[in-house]
Write a structure and sequence with these properties.
With 145 residues, the chain is an alpha+beta fold. The protein is 37% helix and 26% strand. It has one domain: Transcriptional regulator MraZ domain (Chemotaxis protein chec), CATH 3.40.1550.20. The strands form 2 sheets. Strands 1-7-8-4-3-5 form a 6-stranded antiparallel β-sheet. The radius of gyration is 16 Å and the shape is globular. It starts with 5 loop residues before the first strand and ends in a 5-residue tail after the last helix.
Length: 145
């Protein structure tokens, strides 16, 4: 299943996010909450994240510094969890801090392979900039704007 759409959500008092109902079946069972390079968190189905990490590591020789660093990046920055019976996932405080999520107001954005969790204000700024760059991004890939 590809994750599409943008949704406004609010964390509860225990920093739990209720996953949009349309995505709960795709995220049933194990999921990975991942800190990334952008100021957001990503929520992947376990199979998707494991395949992505394994594919990235397959290109590096296991005894090299590059492999060790990639392993740390993929595995130390990911937390395996499950949605609870109400379709919620708890966001650890240190993950929220790394992603710049300081308020309870979130944006849940579908990005194809995963859901991204953004601080609402950060998302609004980023989304406006992304929209401004959309023509350049598509042109850089060889597509007409």
């Amino acid at each position: 299943m590809a994750f599409h759409g943008t949704f406004e959500h609010t964390l509860d008092a225990k920093n739990r996010l209720t996953v949009p109902s349309r995505f709960r079946s795709a995220l049933a069972g194990r999921v990975f909450l991942v800190k990334g390079q952008d100021p957001c968190l990503s929520l992947f189905p376990a199979e998707t994240y494991e395949a992505m990490a394994n594919a990235a590591l397959a290109t590096a020789t296991p005894m090299t510094q590059q492999h060790r660093e990639l392993s740390r990046y993929f595995f130390a920055n990911a937390q395996e969890m499950e949605l609870d019976s109400a379709g919620r996932v708890m966001l650890p405080a240190h993950f929220m801090a790394q992603a710049g999520i300081g308020a309870r107001e979130l944006i849940v954005a579908g990005t194809g392979a995963c859901l991204e969790l953004w601080d609402r204000t950060t998302w609004q700024t980023y989304d406006a900039q992304l929209t401004d760059r959309a023509a350049d991004l598509t042109a850089s890939l060889g597509h007409p704007a």
